[in-house]
Amino acid sequence: xxxxxxxxxxxxxxxxxxxxxxxxxxxxxxxxIKKVDNLKKGIxxxxxPGLEELxxxxxKNKRLMFSTNLKKSVSKxxxxxxxxxxxxxxNGYGADLSQIYNVAKEIRSSIxxxxxxxxxxxxxxxxxxxxxxxxxxxxxxxxFSVISNPEFLREGEAIRDFTYPDRVVIGTKDKKSNKILKxxxxxxxxxxxxxxxxxRRAAELIKYAxxxxxxxKITFINELANLCEKIDVNIEDISIGMGLDKxxxxxxxxxxxxxxxxxxxxxxxxxxxxADKYKTNLSVIKSVIVSNQNRSLLLLKxxxxxxxxxxxxxxxxxxxxxxxxxxxxxxDSSSLLMIPSLIKKGAFxxxxxxxxxxxxxxxxxxxxxxxxxxxAIKDSDLIIIHTEWNDFKSINFKKIVKNKNFIIFDMRNIYxxxxxxxxxxxxxxxxx
Length: 432
Ligand code: NAD
What we know:
six-stranded parallel β-sheet, 43% helix, 15% strand, single chain, 14 strands
């Protein structure tokens, strides 16, 4: 099939290359000229395991193309996936849909024969109705169909998640388009993905409901971790004991820093805004948002306690600054709040992240990027394990850190408290 992905970011690029790998002809379009030029040279704009090889292979096979020419790419394609950003509005909690509606306006002049237009971006319920309205102002409804097909991939596992999804959700009542999409997704369905055909509005809401539920799970276990810290119980035991119940499940039930990234923070805010618009109070999700916002402040308080309120002039090392492992995505990472706050209190912060130096910290005085783990931790008073990269799982701290009284605050519970005690390392974890 001939596909066009509009927006070549984490979702558009990954799903585009995976569709190409399944034998489709895919044009990935982006308005960012540099991004497209780089992709044509084989330079991948994001860090995602396995992505580079797959892009290079499919680009070489000419199944994958890159372009900045939206109109031409749309007119050559049968199925158009809208994969642009839907960030939080500058003022307020709702989703900013300007990128989506701009695309809808741009593509309508390129539709002269039947096309399926799909929102893969996460969009509030009724956005599909609006897109249909915008396009039908210029084009007959007979030659296009607007469908919701939300994407559930996770950064860091994106290729695996796209290729082996739990489900493919298609929101349309149009039988012809549904048949075409079922055909497109057949290689994934035959590997075990469940195919869910529902209404467009339901598909839009399924995505938000799923993200809000996962954010709730994380927040739930994070709050229980706070209790565990006070009653000499290890949260890891609670996670295991709860997670083995198949009704609950162990995933997203690990205590740690506030959830971050480009999805959960913005999507929880957007769903409560949508519900408010329809005079429905999603009070559980509202509490989750507040609890998560407080989480970083709470962990900062714990840092103060660990350092006995003496933060000034302390050398603090952050191992990992991205919101999760295996991605370079800094959007809404809790490190963005914690590091500047510690600097304000007079600390010196050294950080190492396997995906390199971050623009977000370049202009902050007394924040320094180290090129490897050894140079990052060797002079530290306090080492904060912020992101759960495999690189941080077997560090010989005693051999590397010069300061004999160094402390570790493991926000991901990577290490065993018992082992650290045996090694006589001053070690703190979350929820124990
Ligand atoms: P992103 O910011 O990485 O990529 C969006 C891209 O769209 C950018 O490269 C931008 O230049 C491009 N763009 C914007 N307007 C354009 C236009 N008019 N023409 C061409 N290109 C245009 O965003 P992302 O993380 O890929 O997320 C995209 C959507 O998918 C969001 O709605 C997000 O919520 C959703 N989503 C993201 C993830 C994830 O893990 N990142 C997972 C599932 C769903």
